[in-house]
């Protein structure tokens, strides 16, 4: 905790990808409320949402929020995001890779190899690129990286071979990078949420035949019988950045206990699924 202020990440500079809604917004909000100077991005098509979040958070008078348009599937735009952050603040203390997506559920037969490549670019290669360009700056201040992965990256998920592969990749990439960067005292961790209520989940559920039942099933997938909130994931990230100074290479589950218990697992027969 910053001495006397009660702010846990005061004046630290944080980059969050995909920060205008969903989990990214939760991370941006929690970090700003704890005194961090946060630069966040979404694609330029969502520029107005990004600007609105920037304005609202700066109105709090704690920390700072800066929006920069960046499509994380484009290397030059990620490089620009890092460069602009360093131009403005002179340092980077924490990088949170979050921007990603989950396609609708399908068997392997219906995914094309191009679908898979596209998702890999968004969910995994973009994390690699952001780490690569941010690391020279993170090393100078012994900063840290948090990669948003997913519980399903380690336990699997029905109809989601491509998504699960990208998230398994995020978790193992984070461990390998933690090993390499330890000599610079840069920590690298991943966070694996269970179901978290976000626009992504909402839009997936709304496409099912019985959205209400789908959402109830989504809540029941956790031992705690509810979705996580975006702020709860933000808090987990803040812990890793601010206090978890002896954590590196871990995959921190924030899953409401979704990986526990023995129960109905068979996917034989019809199921109404959001993805
Ligand atoms: N919601 C969940 O239940 C859940 C569970 C586990 C993991 N996750 C992971 O958390 C992350 C965020 O998911 P969410 O549910 O908040 O999704 P969301 O769709 O609600 O938000 C995703 C954010 O990423 C941004 N984004 C997407 N493509 C982008 C691009 N090319 N360039 C820049 N920004 C882009 C979007 O604009 C948005 O701000 C993802 O990596 C997802 O896989 C989500």
From TrEMBL:
One of its GO terms (molecular function) is estradiol 17-beta-dehydrogenase [NAD(P)+] activity. Keywords: Oxidoreductase. It comes from the Eukaryota. GO terms for cellular component: cytosol. It holds the Pfam family adh_short. SUPFAM superfamilies: NAD(P)-binding Rossmann-fold domains (SSF51735). PROSITE patterns: ADH_SHORT. InterPro entries: NAD(P)-bd_dom_sf (IPR036291), Sc_DH/Rdtase_CS (IPR020904), SDR_fam (IPR002347). The keyword Transmembrane does not apply. GO terms for biological process: steroid catabolic process. The keyword Nucleotide-binding does not apply. Belongs to the short-chain dehydrogenases/reductases (SDR) family. This is 17-beta-hydroxysteroid dehydrogenase 14. It comes from Lottia gigantea (Giant owl limpet).
